[in-house]
């Protein structure tokens, strides 16, 4: 796939006739029509709303920090501060308390080089998730 650097294009793919495109803010995929050039997912729309009108929302809707790093559910293994063990976001109750909590590093600025790799990885993970969802229905 060509890397178009000078043109602002967002990643998209077609699965079962449905086109998916990355949100321009968080790079999550959302359903789009064939002609869509860019999307903002509902999650980011909500975030933007919260930023614009911080007092207009009930407190239960505001973001609650979990103490877990962003993307912890993508990690092969993550142990939270209570000793709960997760493998790719799935809790492993039998391993609870057997491992040291994963050290949470402060978020780094996005590396430009790994951005494409990340997107492909996410697309792959997302497709997997979708397939799993379909199967369970
Ligand atoms: Zn988004």
Task: Give your account of this protein's structure.
By secondary structure, this protein is α+β, with helices and mostly antiparallel strands. 24% of the residues lie in helices and 15% in strands. It contains 2 helices and 6 strands. Strand 4 (78-79) and strand 5 form a beta hairpin. The model has no long low-confidence stretch (mean pLDDT 82). Bound molecules: zinc ion. Zinc ion binds at residues 23, 25-26, 28, 41, 43-44.
**Structural category:** alpha+beta
Task: Please list the strands of the largest sheet in the order they lie side by side.
Answer: 1-2-3
Poorly predicted runs = none
Mean pLDDT: 82
Task: Report how far the terminal alpha carbons are from each other.
Answer: 33 Å
Bound ligands, named by name, code or SMILES: zinc ion
Helix percent reads 10-25%
**What spatial form do the alpha-carbon principal axes imply?**
globular
Largest sheet: 3 strands, antiparallel
The Cα radius of gyration reads 18 Å
Beta percentage is 5-15%
Count of alpha and pi helical runs:
2
Count of strand segments: 6
Order of helices and strands: EEEHEEEH
